[in-house]
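In the design runs reported in the main text, the only information available to the sequence generator was the tokenized backbone. The following block is the verbatim input for one such run; it is reproduced so that readers can re-run the procedure and compare outputs position by position.
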């Protein structure tokens, strides 16, 4: 069902998804966390444990991690190639942060319920703030 221009004005509407839950309670629903970001967070925690075991300084551990992070960003297993804006195709400049068009503050819009139009939670941006 195609949405009209007035329905797309809803404060919770984002790329066809209803982001109401995430907007009202950011991070509450773990299932909405970007899978790629969640994987990086687990890998970061594991890496810190290993770095601590080897007695690496925080500065050295950070430099090692930063050298690895673009290899992690290029891993194609979590998101479709078109989602991660060229990273999986190796087009991402190494000095700029990775941006996914489906991510909003760490949450993945693809995991959220689809917007079906004006509902009981419909709110214009000014009504929320």
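Verbatim output:
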């Amino acid at each position: 069902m195609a949405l009209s221009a007035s329905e797309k004005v809803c404060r919770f509407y984002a790329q066809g998804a209803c982001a109401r839950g995430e907007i009202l309670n950011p991070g509450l629903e773990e299932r909405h966390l970007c899978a790629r970001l969640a994987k990086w967070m687990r890998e970061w925690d594991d890496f810190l444990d290993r770095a601590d075991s080897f007695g690496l300084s925080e500065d050295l551990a950070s430099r090692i991690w930063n050298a690895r992070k673009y290899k992690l960003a290029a891993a194609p297993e979590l998101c479709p190639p078109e989602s991660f804006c060229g990273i999986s195709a190796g087009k991402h400049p190494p000095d700029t942060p990775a941006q996914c068009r489906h991510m909003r503050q760490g949450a993945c819009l693809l995991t959220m319920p689809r917007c079906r139009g004006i509902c009981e939670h419909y709110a214009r941006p000014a009504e929320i703030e």
